[in-house]
Amino acid sequence: MNPTALEYFVRIAQSGSISRTAIEAGIEQSTMTRHIARLEADLKVRLFHRSGRGVVLTDAGSLLLTRARKVAEALDETRKLAVTLADEGPSQLVIAAQPTIAQRSFAAVARALRACFPDTRLHMVEALGHQIMNSLADGRIDVALLYVPNSQASMVDMDVLLHEPLYLILPPDFPPVAPTTPVAQVFDQPLILPGTPHGLRGLVESLALNCNRHVRVEVECDGSNAIVKNLVRAGVGCAVLPLATVAEEVALGQLQASRLAEPEVTREIAIATARNRPPVIGQWDILQTLRQAILGQAAQGNWPGATEAAKPSGPDISAA
């Protein structure tokens, strides 16, 4: 038995008119009639006497009305509760981001979410891309901010926000570099790369394959960006990173940065949610709050090198 049909039954009984109730509900009269016909078929009784002046309850309809009113009232209260919960947000929200994204966005994101959802307890996590994807799938993370992965994208819904070019990062005592470096020349340098085959390591190896070059891995490092930067600054090797990761050190002359070119290499930054998990309370508002906070960081110049992604004409669907 369809609860919506019971609600329509109560409203028709109160108004005495199927057509008037359909207009008030914003649906076609034929749709309203089908709901009532299906309800009568389910119950195997006639609920209304129909005439040119409207409808009146049968004896069976009068008996049903008392119970149906309780169902309609319960549904209305449930809807009101859902609206209230959505306004308040979830009791806890777990947000994860990859290191550079966390560095550039977490402060702004936390401020924005605290302002909109003061009763929600925020849990913010920094992790690598493949770790975030796994945690999204098993429900340990509610929302992720990440570089769009080459694989596993079918597991999540993504809203791409920013484009971010990659740079070759060199020690300060290396000969001065040009503003751009052809991709093929990256592989002349000893590189510091993650040990995991996912994300950045996979991207660099793919670029080498396209150039028919070999990757010279000097050190594998799965530590934080701070460790990678220290290794480069000490002259151990070079790295491939976004400018936002090293902007302060480059400005101080502690590192050098040269944007990859021929071809330009960029990554997309997105908000991601799992397709196999139910949405958190107020998810739409939460995602919009995140979107505005992150785009605001880029617009204000707080995310060096990043530019807003063009909005697709279709629905949002779319690290490291």
Summarize the structure in words.
The protein has 320 residues and is of the alpha/beta class. It has 3 domains: 3-88, Winged helix-like DNA-binding domain superfamily/Winged helix DNA-binding domain (Arc Repressor Mutant, subunit A, Orthogonal Bundle); 92-162 and 267-308, Periplasmic binding protein-like II (D-Maltodextrin-Binding Protein, domain 2); 165-266, D-Maltodextrin-Binding Protein, domain 2, CATH 3.40.190. Helices cover 45% and strands 22% of the residues. It is built from 11 helices and 13 strands. Strands 3, 4, 5, 6, 7, 10, 11, 12 and 13 form a 9-stranded mixed β-sheet that branches. It has a two-stranded antiparallel ribbon with strand order 1-2. The longest helix is centred in the first third of the chain and has 30 residues, at 59-88. The model is unreliable at 312-320 (pLDDT under 50). Residues 1-58 form the HTH lysR-type domain. This is LysR family transcriptional regulator. InterPro entries: LysR_HTH_N, LysR_subst-bd. Belongs to the LysR transcriptional regulatory family. Keywords: DNA-binding, Transcription, Transcription regulation.
Outline:
InterPro entries: LysR_HTH_N, LysR_subst-bd. The chain is an alpha/beta fold and 320 residues long.
